[in-house]
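**Protein of interest**
===
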Amino acid sequence: KQWYQRRVAITAGKLGTEKHHKQLLEGIDSLADIGCFGLTELGYGNNAVEMETTAIFDPDTKELIVHTPNPLAQKYWITNGALHAHHVVVFAHLITHGVNHGIHAVLVPIRDKELNVLPDVLVEEMGYKMGLNGVDNAKLTFDNVRVPIDNLLDKFSKLSEDGTLTSDIKSTRARFLAVADQLLAGRICIASMCIGGAKASLAIAVKYSATRLTVGSKGKSDTAILSYQLQQHALLPLLARTYALNIGLDRVKRKWAEQIPEDHLEVVAMCCALKPICSWHLENLVSVCRERCGGQGYLSCNRFGTFIGLAHAAMTAEGDNSVLMQKVAKERLGMFKPQATVPVSDNIATTDQMINLIKLRENALFTGLGGALAAAGRAKMFQTWMLEQNESIQSAGRTYGERIVADEFKSVVDNSEGSTREVLQDLLDLHLTSYVKDNSAWFLTQELISPDQAKQVTAEFDRLCQILTPQALNLVESFAISDEMLSAPIARDWVGYNEVDNKGELDLF
């Protein structure tokens, strides 16, 4: 909930002007004024530019009339809206004197200070969800709600009292894209939450695996399950990938915060790539951790169910993952320049060679996709993009993201020292061998590697899992998540927890 509040602050800061900053930011920061973000409509999610909510200028009263014309236009999945928000940033078609100027953001009050819903606003609770039920989500409908023209967030478009709109951005499409850029911060936040969930899940699973004893070489229950290759091969690659994505995401955060205009399209592609990659990672990771913790992992108190719910929310919120990958591929095609590569060597199980393979894959996928679109021409562009090239589009977008992560991880390793560098190098190599191994079918069919070279990668994967296992507890401890924050009994004294009738509750902890 708090990151949605920050998102409202970012939107007001980025789309508003000084008058809005004075009116809103102090209350938002102190939580005295709770806001929500009203973009998605029931009938318009990914195709938001076609939304139907309107904000029509009334020349007689100098107001904007915000209206929901039909059920498909109700604002949908609006976080904070069901219970707590005082106002909502409504994205609507701005219409003056019969002219539609495209999507703009308008601040609309929906509750008074006592949290009573205001007249002509209908707030409906979305209902019980498969997870994250501590977050309230609403459907919002506006029945000709009147707000002052000053409620238009007008950084890009100024509206005079006579209804004249002036804007430095001439096309409605370009203005919409400028408004939609406010989603980038949300995507970074979601990716960050997913990395946090991945760290917590790994900490729980690794700590339990290090203390849960079962059959050893002499038939006694004297061997921690983390000693088994089965457990190591399940958890250690996920641990390495979590480190990799954390480091890659840090780079994206810096690029977003420090961006210059020339880098904007690159920042858009980065944000749109890392949100899906991080949320898909969490969904896979938490399912594996749950399974590897057996029946204990199925208990609600051990938290995996919570993180599965988070993962599925993250895969859809702020843009469906696969649709975002279409945007990544589209943006990258427009500025694509092949990555510099070197010939594949006999021994591919090295850091440089495995990163080189990722770059070769990125080059091949974008070159092939560009060729297919060029061959289709304008007449068949839609058919080719939407009906024929889905696998190439998805693979190209994801490979771009993987290359960003790999490059940044290598840069971090190269600038580290001593024992820290040694363990980070092993984590990087495990991340890379896992990626190449998982995608070996593509590398083999493209004849970039041979079966013997694929075996090299598998052997290195096995070795790295084995040598990193003794470091696993230290690696999850470095996440600095306290026992109280983890709260899962299996990450603590799970034997003591079961000495009493706990009913699956956490009162003892």
